[in-house]
Amino acid sequence: MTKPEWSFKGLHFANCNCDYGCPCQFNALPTDGTCKAVVAWQIDEGYCGETKLDGLKVATTYAWNNPIHEGNGEMQVIVDDSATEEQRRALVGIMNGEYTDPGKIMIQIYRSMCSKVHDPIFAPIDMDINMDGRRAHLKVDGIIETDLEPIKNPVTGAEHRARFDLPNGKEFNSAEVASGTTKGSGAVNLAFTGTHAHISRDTMTSEGPNR
Q1: What is the pLDDT of residues 74-92, one digit of tens each?
Q2: Which in 88, 162, 173, 199 has the greatest CB count within 10 A?
Q3: Residue 1 pLDDT exceeds 80
Q4: Closest to 79 in 3D by CA, of 106, 46, 102
Q5: What backbone phi and psi angles, to 5 degrees, belong to 121?
Q6: Are strands 121-123 and 73-80 parallel, antiparallel or unpaired?
Q7: Nearest to 40 by CA among 190, 194, 210, 207
């Protein structure tokens, strides 16, 4: 079967259980040897084949009890229930890496490292992302809640700003770094406070971030 081309244009954020900076961005092992995260997308403009995805929201929760490259992880896709049946199939397929060649983007790589894929959830997603302010909020009632804020100087309380620049990145080109707190009680349980987060504005495609 021919894989449909797809594209997301808009903002996305990630919050994981690692220290600020996320060792993964530097080919290093995770802070405590495990990786748990939520990644959320706010699609301003998007498509999958002939299916339009404009204005939709989607999130995925992940967990590995070891570094990601060792595999045996689990994941669950959450799609805003405003999506039509056609849009739901497209978003679940994209998040599950079905429409991307191996190794092209992190979505597919993450999926390939998960031995357990839980059934997707279709529910209202409350989400707001402010990249310049390094703030974001995600809430799916009874499933997950995430809040991002700027990293604060521990002495003065002043906001601290740091950025990533990944010219060959498979997840984004550049991103603002933030502090995140997540509580998740879906199939993938998440619980971390004041840990690494980043926000990016990119056009993600089936071939990776648009350069």
Answers
A1: 999 999 999 999 999 999 9
A2: 199
A3: no
A4: 46
A5: -110, 135
A6: parallel
A7: 190
The span from the CA of 121 to the CA of 57, in Å, is: 12
CB burial of 95-128 (b: ≥16 within 10 Å; e: otherwise) equals bbbbbbeeeebbbbbbbebbeebeebbbeebebe
Give the residue extent of every domain in the chain. Answer: 6-201
Instruction: Count the residues in the chain.
Output: 211
The span from the CA of 77 to the CA of 90, in Å, is 12
Dihedral (Cα; 105, 110, 115, 120), 10-degree rounding: -90
Average pLDDT of the segment spanning 150-156? 96
Residue corresponding to tokens 């994981």 = 16
The pTM for the full model equals: 0.95
Nearest to 186 by CA among 138, 153, 149, 154: 138
Specify the residue for token string 């849009």. 87
